[in-house]
Every structure is written in C-alpha cells, then in structure tokens.
Amino acid sequence: MVQMIHSRNHVILQPAYVLHSTPYRDTSVLLEVFTPDHGRIGLVVRGVRSAKSRLRGVLQPFRPLLISWYSKGDLGTLTTAEVNVEEGGGAHLGGRALMSGFYLNELLLRLLHRHDPHPASFHSYDIALRKLVLGDDVTLQQALRIFEKELLQDIGYGLVLDRDVITGEPVAAEGLYRYHLEKGPERMECVTAAHIANTLGIVLHGHTLLGLAHNELSQGDVLQEAKKLLRKLLAVHLGRQPLRSRELYNEMQAIMSTQ
Amino acid sequence: MIDDSLIGQLITALRCLPGVGPKSAQRMAFHLLERDRTGARRLAQTLSLAADNVGHCVSCRTLTELETCRLCANNGRDRTCVCVVEMPGDVQAIERSGTYKGLYFVLMGHLSPLDGIGPREIGLDQLIVNLDTGIIKEVILATNSTVEGEATAHYIAEMVRKRGIKPTRIAHGMPLGGELEYVDGGTLQYAFAGRKEV
Fold this sequence. Notes:
The complex is a heterodimer of chains A (259) and B (198). With 259 residues, chain A is α+β, with helices and mostly antiparallel strands. Chain A has three domains: 5-87, CATH 2.40.50.140; 95-155 and 241-257, no CATH class; 176-238, no CATH class. Helix content of chain A is 40%, strand content 23%. In chain A, β4 and β5 form a beta hairpin. In chain A, α2 (95-111) packs antiparallel against α3, α4 (137-154) packs parallel to α7 (220-238) and α6 crosses α7 (220-238). Chain A is elongated. Chain A starts with a helix and ends with a helix. Chain B has 198 residues and is α/β, with parallel strands linked by helices. Chain B is 43% helix and 13% strand. Classes of the chains: A alpha+beta (259), B alpha/beta (198).
C-alpha cells in the first residue's frame, strides 16, 4: 500500500492557495491550486459541494491552506485540506481588495505553467495578499506592482532597473529614461515635450526605476509610472486575450466615479 | 454497443439529470414502463410544456412561465425592498423561512472574472432599470458567502449606493444550535466582526 501511494506521488501537507475552482459533475470541483514546491496544479476534489462537506468553507481562494494530494497524470486528487492556522488563517478580503485578489490569481493562471515549481512567486503572492488585507489604496497599488515585478522576474523576464542598458551607467533619480521593453532603460538626453511625445516606448523617471528596484513605491507619480511600465511588460507575455479581472475592476471604477 | 431501442434511448435521455448514472437511469426507465405508465405520460407532458414555456421573469429574472412571476405580481409584497440572490433555489429557501416580505432579484449566477462572467451576464442592467424606477429604498444582498458571492455583493452595493439607495448585506455567523468549538475560523471571524450589543 505504501509502495503504491509513493508510486502515485503522494504529497503531504503542502502550503497552498486556491486560485480558481470550477464545478465538476454533481458534487465535485476542479481546483487550480498554487503551491511553492509543485507550482500551479490541477486537483479534483470529490464530494465537496455536498451539503455535509466540511471542506466547502476551507477551499476558498485567498486562504492559506495545507493540502495533501496524490497524482498520477496531469490532474491530482485532493485527499485532505485544512486552513494553515500558523499562517494566521488569512483575513477576509473585501471589496476592492477582492477584485485585486482575482487579478493576482488571473496573472498566475495565465503566466505559470502547471507543475513548474515557483517558490519565489509563492512567497511574493503570500506577501501581496497580506498587504491587500490592509485595504488602503496606496498599499494595494504597491502590493500589485511589487508582485507583478517579482512574478516577471521569477518566470525569467527580470527587469533591468538600476542601470542604463546602453551606457551601463547607474540610473540617476532625476534623469528621464525611455524603457525598451526587451532590454531596459535608456537615458534620454534631449527632453522637450515634443521629444517625449515622439518617443516610442515608455518614458519614465529615474526615481520610478529606483523605487521599483527597491520596492519603495511611495509617491503617487511613481506608482502611476510603475503601473504603466508593468502593464506594458506584462502585455508582452499575456498575449492578446484581455485580463478579465482588470475589465471587471475598471467597470467597477466606472460605476464608482460616474453620477 | 449502443442500444438504439426506445428503452435504450429513454435510459440515455434520463442520464441528463444530475446525479443519475447508467444504473439509476435504467432503474427509473423500468419503473416508469413497468409500474407507472400514467406517471410516465404526465412526466413527459409536463416536461415538454415546461421546457417550451418556462422563461425568465421580466422583473426579477427568476424562472417562470408567466411574463411577471407570481411573487413580483403579488400586491401584498413590500415593493420598496429588493433581495438579491444567486439562484431561484435561494428564493425558495428564503420564502420557506417566512421572514421576508419584499421582492427578489435573481442573478442566475455570480460575478466570476476568471470565468468571464461579468455584470451583464448576471443581468445587472435589468437591476439598474428596476432601481431607477425610484420605488426601491433598500437592496438586501443575499449572495453566497464565497469569494465570488462577496465580490458580487460588493459590486452591486456600489451600484446601489450611487443611486442613493441603501445596500445591506445579510449577516454571517454562528449557525443556530451550533457549538462554538466546532465552527470554522472563517465563520468565527465574521461572527466577531458582526457582533452586536445585547
């Protein structure tokens, strides 16, 4: 029996977050789960939608879990799941933080392949969720930008933020830079408004680059520039299909600002 | 081998019901044919009528064969209050409890950005039309206590608040007759956050 379980790849009490769940058959669900050592995995959970199941409340997104499963092929079968009490059990995300949480999940679903271990991204995700719980707008924006940067880095598209890619000189806070998506920042010497308007790519300040490099995104314009830069960089890897959570977030912003 | 006899077809057809596998489908088919032909005929007729005629209520979107469902048409209901729920089954559950006398709005789902289900798919444009009639004073958000249910409630709450109408969310907490020791942490968090002075 032990031999059999081992041959079927039994993983025990692995930290995890549920990214998404889809109903499957009458009472089961298909989960997309994110773990540090096994990356993103697909799991079948049987009987979880029946009235008696104790797992229903547990297997919700944004809650730190400890899960066990075995797998033979691409999909695994969940055997146990409990809330990771040592991690605080997770606080409930409300409102805007919830929408941002969906965005993080969608990024992970779109950018990570199943079964690729990403312990660094798991750590970044964990930290980002904790910041979302705090709820204020600046913390939320900071958390999203840092997560985006670290996720890109972890999947092999790390950003050059501290030096000019042409001259190799360190980035100066007061300088103005043009960011080449594939390479990195290049200092702009002639900076008239017309010149900026005609420049291809993203124009941003040195202090934004340095802020992003050191995870210190405090000022409003730094956050705005960092957001533009990361959006462009992510778009390269996300392909043409729009992010649905971003659409919903924008629709919600529209509701809140009109009338 | 595919059984294309009438009985075989009946068994296959019955399998479209939730929770019905080949074994139970066969049992049902034989029961209807051997023991209850009248029941079988009635089932066939009602099913066919229902499939052809049941649609959505123009006002609350619940399933009904009428243009406006009985609840919405009932003059005895409080028209200033609307309770938003995810499924028609939720309406039945609240009606059974007998505590609520207002109207309903059935979303037939919840917002789920990762599945591409947005505000339009859950009929929020219709809800806006209802809100803009100016009769409604309170919108009770009774979506499920899942992350999607919460997101849906939050989205609708913003919509409702912008129109100067009061949004309220049903309370979450201890189940009746529940022992605190066995209640999960998430529910307890809600129960503490929503505590009341006694």
